[in-house]
Amino acid sequence: MMGQPKKKRPLAKYVFILALIYGSGCQPLEKKNKVTDPFEQIKDSTAKAVLIKAIKNAGSFDTWQRIKNLFYIKHGILYFADGSVETDNVQLHRYKFFPQFSAEITWEENDIHHRISYSTDGARQFENDRLTEKDPTQTVMSSLYVLGMPFKLLDAGTVLTALGSVILRSGQQAEAIRANYNPEKNSNHSTTEEWVYYFDENNAAFLGSLVFHPPTYAYIENLKFTDHLPIKLPLDRKSYRTNKNREISYLRADFQYSDYEITF
Length: 264
Known about the structure:
- By secondary structure, this protein is an alpha+beta fold.
- It contains 4 helices and 13 strands.
- 16% of the residues lie in helices and 43% in strands.
- Strands 6-5-4-3-2-1-13-12-11-10-9-8-7 form a 13-stranded antiparallel beta sheet.
């Protein structure tokens, strides 16, 4: 989630969180006798109904949990308010979820080769193979959050509230769902910011989201998803600086995703 202020936590906690997110998909059969309803914690009946439909549309929660390896290419461009380019790079993302989580993100920028390495041994960022003091933990967390929507809305402790129907600037009618997070009570939460997510009123496709990054709002449009994989993953996303009514000030970011490879 771009631009969020985060509370710093030890790496071990983040690895534990990732184990909670993905680990249940590889439990031995004898430990999976008790079937739990992942939607049970949602108290708002309207929000629950929308999310059930949204996750079915995206490919099913069980399929998401069974992913073992994931690779993709991300082309991201950030813009200043005047439309000039702030950064433009192509990143290669590699994630391994079992038996232990690890991640590697590499890209070239300003004639510097950047590499993020994330595992149980630590989170490190290198520039031209030299270790820096940068903490890349949030980069990894944010990348997984984007890929994991709408499945991530089932994270323990997330409070979902239906806000009713809205019309987006595309003209699409959408159901708005607010998500509240409480990192003081939930170790798997990393922000107190309130997010609003928009799902197509007909098929519950994930259309976009709105978040308040003080002092500005960010409105993200999901323009295209994969249609050839067991789950739907983003292909084209744009982020805009807006006000609380989603009235656009300027295009902040353009993200293109490609070359997905998934193993189960």
